[in-house]
Amino acid sequence: MRKLSRPQSLNELAEIAIRNAIIEGQLKFGDHLSEARLSQMLGISKTPVREALVKMKAEGLIESDPKRGTYVFSVRPGDIDALCEAREVLELAAVRLGFERGREPLGVRLTAIVATMRKALDGDEFRVYQRLDADFHRTIVESAGNPYLEEAYAQISSKIATLRTRVHTMPDVMARSLVTHGKIAKLIVDDDLKALNALLSVHVRNTGRYAKKWLASQQEKAAAVETTS
Fold first, then answer.
1. What dihedral angle (degrees, nearest 10) is formed by the CA atoms of 44, 47, 52, 57?
2. How many angstroms from the chain centroid is the CA of residue 127?
């Protein structure tokens, strides 16, 4: 007999829907989040929405203030720097362990993901590309076989994905990203850990640099609107 798959709870479904809305930009940085409004939009009661918000607050995706209420996290240049520093530490540690414990299968998996990323980009399936980008880096982390590394990375992965979505709206960023991911996969296949570490580090730092550039452009647009209003 096959094991029965447990259907997802309303809490889990609410969490997925709200998380995706934040990551994909339907909910923007600093947007106010009303339990009543979200439950109405999702067609469910407020309880699973409340539970979902509590979980995402623990990850830092949601912030709350006695005066402002609950809202999508805000991002500042210093936050981007700190996030990228943590990401670089975790991914470099993970890729070193993954390299030692299963370099060949890791290279095969990442090469396959890059091929799918290329198809997604060629087909203008940008959301698919962004999810594959996240899968690529998650695969590196999981290759370490260390649950503590995975747990630490999971704590920041949604914020990384949220910034990635914004960065990918900038001209040619996804095309350059695809080239870099292909090079990372090839360096693993070619057994070149030194060059791999250097490239992965540059890649993570470039994401932070692009994110701060995107943030500055948004602040300039907001300032221009205030000036004309």
1. 140
2. 12
User: Would you put residue 133 in left (φ > 0), alpha (ψ -120 to 50) or beta?
Assistant: alpha
Q: Which residues of 133-157 are buried (b: 16+ CB within 10 A; e: fewer)?
A: bbbbbbbbbbbbebeebbebbeebb
* DSSP string for 194-215: HHHHHHHHHHHHHHHHHHHHHH
DSSP 26: S
Q: Is-contact 71 62, C-beta < 8 A?
A: yes
pTM here is 0.90
**Phi then psi dihedrals of residue 36, to 5 deg:** -65, -45
Give me the torsion for CA of 212, 217, 222, 228, rounded to 10°.
160
Distance, CA of 152 to CA of 92 (rounded, Å): 13
Distance in angstroms (rounded) separating the CA atoms of residues 226 and 68 = 21
Q: By C-alpha distance, which of 46, 49, 44, 140 is closest to 87?
A: 140
- How confident is the model over 139-165, as pLDDT tens digits? 999 999 999 999 999 999 999 999 999
Q: Which DSSP helix (H) or strand (E) runs through 65?
A: strand 62-65
Residue with tokens 């067609």, as numbered in its chain: 43
65 or 176: which leads in pLDDT: 176
Read off the pLDDT of each residue in 43-62 and give the average, rounded to a whole number: 92
